[in-house]
Design a protein that fits this description.
elongated, mainly alpha
Length: 316
Amino acid sequence: MINRELIRIKVVQLTYAYYQNGNKNMDNAEKELLFSLSKAYDLYNYLLLLIVEVSREERRRLEILTARAEREGTEAPSQKFAFNKFAVQLEENKALNQFVDDKKLSWVNDAEFVRSLCNQIEQSETYSEYMASEDDSYDADREVWRKLYKQLIQENGELDALLEEKSLYWNDDKDIIDTFVMKTIRRFDPANKANQELLPEYKDEEDRDFARKLFRATIMNADAYQRYMSETSRNWDFSRLAYMDVVIMQIAIAEMMTFPNIPISVTINEYVDLAKLYSTVKSGGYINGMLDSIARYLVDTGKMMKPMLPPRNNRH
């Protein structure tokens, strides 16, 4: 689940923090990097658990409405959403329950938010259409949760604020973790019952190593990488670089030099996007040009054995 996009983001954040921190302890910084990545996986499970908590709250409401209907002799309320087949399968999921138990994750202290979210769901057009539909298939149950998650959880300022209070890491992580939750919803298959696989923390050991190697290469070879920047910046106004730009370029050079199987163009495009996210408005175009020049310099001088770049695509 923790993919290279998320790893690059974390390495940028932790490298910047490393240089801002007077006590430059490499081992501690690496532990902080891996811890911050593990917190992203906590968030993934916590957001899946939110779906379960909403379903439990809906069942509590159903009990109250059913009791009232019995007293008043009126028609019993529908159980359709409270016992949504996808949500029930998720609630029974062995991997989620094991993780939640191990990490002591719970929405108990945020019952008010869960109730508020239930209210938003019940007032939504998506919910109304679902409840009115005669389709009671598993696919329909899974699809309504995919829609509700996208509409009411993915973009939810109240939830963002709540998560930020719980962990400093989670606010920056949520956008990308939302995509993993959506992917998980789509992958659920009723045939798998409680044994449905969730996304693993890392796809493989190679991705875990990617985080460590990229961070270590960035810090340990900083002098050499900054020298490459200086040597190839004759046509560029180096003073225009924001400090974050220097950090991002340093990491990009580390990736180009350390991972022979990652194409140069992929690395440049990834860090141009990160510059747009974390640095100034003009940083993307500037870093694109600088990294292109640096890559050509490294190939021409034999310091990097990768194919030459095609003409630059001038991403801005």
